[in-house]
From TrEMBL:
<dbReference type="GO" id="GO:0005789">
    <property type="term" value="C:endoplasmic reticulum membrane"/>
</dbReference>
<protein>
    <recommendedName>
        <fullName>3-dehydrosphinganine reductase</fullName>
        <ecNumber>1.1.1.102</ecNumber>
    </recommendedName>
</protein>
<comment type="similarity">
    <text>Belongs to the short-chain dehydrogenases/reductases (SDR) family.</text>
</comment>
<comment type="function">
    <text>Catalyzes the reduction of 3'-oxosphinganine (3-ketodihydrosphingosine/KDS) to sphinganine (dihydrosphingosine/DHS), the second step of de novo sphingolipid biosynthesis.</text>
</comment>
<keyword id="KW-0256">Endoplasmic reticulum</keyword>
<keyword id="KW-0560">Oxidoreductase</keyword>
<keyword id="KW-0521">NADP</keyword>
<dbReference type="GO" id="GO:0030148">
    <property type="term" value="P:sphingolipid biosynthetic process"/>
</dbReference>
<dbReference type="InterPro" id="IPR036291">
    <property type="entry name" value="NAD(P)-bd_dom_sf"/>
</dbReference>
<keyword id="KW-0175">Coiled coil</keyword>
<dbReference type="Pfam" id="PF00106">
    <property type="entry name" value="adh_short"/>
</dbReference>
<dbReference type="InterPro" id="IPR045022">
    <property type="entry name" value="KDSR-like"/>
</dbReference>
<keyword id="KW-0443">Lipid metabolism</keyword>
<dbReference type="GO" id="GO:0006666">
    <property type="term" value="P:3-keto-sphinganine metabolic process"/>
</dbReference>
<feature type="coiled-coil region">
    <location>
        <begin position="62"/>
        <end position="111"/>
    </location>
</feature>
<comment type="pathway">
    <text>Lipid metabolism; sphingolipid metabolism.</text>
</comment>
<dbReference type="GO" id="GO:0047560">
    <property type="term" value="F:3-dehydrosphinganine reductase activity"/>
</dbReference>
Amino acid sequence: MLLLAAAFVVGFVLLLYMVSPLISPKPLKLPGAHVVVTGGSSGIGKCIAIECYKQGAFITLIARDENKLLQTKKEIEKYSINDKQVVLCISVDVSKDYEQVENVLKQAQEKLGPVDLLVNCAGTSVTGKFEAIEVNSFERLMAVNYLGSVYPSRAVISTMKERRMGRIVFVSSQAGQLGLFGYTAYSPTKFALRGLAEALQMEVKPYNIYVTVAYPPDTDTPGFAEESKTKPLETKLISETSSVCQAEQVARVIVKDAIQGNFNSSVGSDGYMLSILTSGMSPVTSITEGLQQVVCMGIFRIIGLFYLGSFDSIVRRCMMQREKSESTDKTE
Ligand SMILES: NC(=O)C1=CN([C@@H]2O[C@H](COP(=O)(O)OP(=O)(O)OC[C@H]3O[C@@H](n4cnc5c(N)ncnc54)[C@H](OP(=O)(O)O)[C@@H]3O)[C@@H](O)[C@H]2O)C=CC1
Ligand SMILES: CCCCCCCCCCCCCCCC(=O)[C@@H](N)CO
């Protein structure tokens, strides 16, 4: 009887694997492909551009600061694998004016051909207590992190649909999977990308276009160094739960997942747990992934509750410490 049940389970899993090519896309071929990276002049975006260039892609870098763009172009060109490869730089603010973004992408496509892979990596962060964050920071972060990903994607999607191919990556964050102390302005912009990605993926899958959402942990970049200058102690202590990653490592994982057309892209063991735990109604790209979610979700929720308990106690400890030092200040 037991043997029969085991045989049944094994047969079922085998059957699932047989149909799995139906849901797994064909890998994207990077040699000769046109890859556009917004935020490509620094940090994670720069490393993504280098990773794609090393694999033979043509690159368009998008960011505002022209000097930084040119410097990065030179740095990337060191990794060329053939003499046809090109790195194109475009200086534009991805969050200001849709027409402008559409125009520059049209120019890039005239020069390097239709976009095969768009990586939306331009982004920025502001941390602090809710009441201490300037109201216009909430607006600015939503504009850069969210609309700054909508505009380039909206500008390339029609051509991708016509060609019946393409890949779009949204760089969210672990802070786009759970809300944490200090991230009231930042987290919602990263959660928003997930909603956009899910809706868009359902629309464009019949056109053989695949969407990836990446959820990196804290990563050693110029942007991270800037953020750390004003980060509340609570945010620092909570974030230390997971260690700081190198941008090269994060970029390698994102490029691999984009090539494979995986909807979800995470780094490290807590990244893995968070992605399973928050998989909700997001699409799966392989049977294995679906099975892992079904089997692990409950146990990861239990582990997650312990994490949440420790985060709450960090916040309470910091508050008590602050009140104590304020009252000693007064008595002095
Ligand atoms: N580092 C980290 O710990 C993590 C980062 N992330 C996300 O990854 C992405 C990259 O982060 P990171 O590498 O640290 O960032 P950096 O600050 O190092 O680089 C940001 C890049 O985006 C560009 N950029 C910023 N604003 C705009 C804009 N309005 N229009 C066009 N380009 C813009 C910058 O160039 P310029 O200023 O010249 O325009 C630069 O090239 C961000 O979306 C971030 O939220 C997610 C998780 C962790
Ligand atoms: C089973 C559940 C496991 C839970 C583990 C939770 C770990 C939480 C750590 C969160 C770190 C926040 C990263 C934000 C990075 C970011 O986007 C900014 N640095 C951008 O500059």
